[in-house]
Amino acid sequence: MATKSLRDISVDGLWTNNPALVQLLGLCPLLAVTGSVVNALGLGLATMMVLVGSNMSVSLIRNHVADAVRLPAFVMIIASFVTVAELVMQAFTYELYEVLGIFIPLIVTNCAILGRADAFASKNGVVASVVDGFTMALGFAVVLIILGALREVLGQGVIFGDMNLLFGEAARHWKITLFNDYPDFLFAILPPGAFVAMGLLIALKNVIDNTVKQRAELRKAPVTSGSKRVRVTGKIS
Amino acid sequence: MALITLSSPHAHGRNNTGRIMLTVALATLPGLIALTWFFGYGTLINVILASITAIATEALILRIRKYPLAFILKDNTALVTGVLLGLALPPFAPWWITVIAVSFSIVFAKQLYGGIGNNPFNPAMVGYALVLISFPVQMTTHWALSYQMSGQELASFSDTLQIIFAGHTELADAYTGATPLDQYKHLITKETSDELLKLDTFSGWLNGGWEWVNLAFLAGGLFLIWKRIITWHIPVSMLLGLCVCSLFLGWDEDLYTPMSLHLLSGATMLGAFFIATDPVSAATTLRGKLIYGAGIGILLYIIRTWGAYPDAIAFAVLLMNFAAPLIDAYTQPRTYGHSKARRGLTSKSDNKD
Question: Which single residue of A4, A55, A99, B297 has CA 20 to 30 Å from A18?
Answer without folding.
Answer: A99
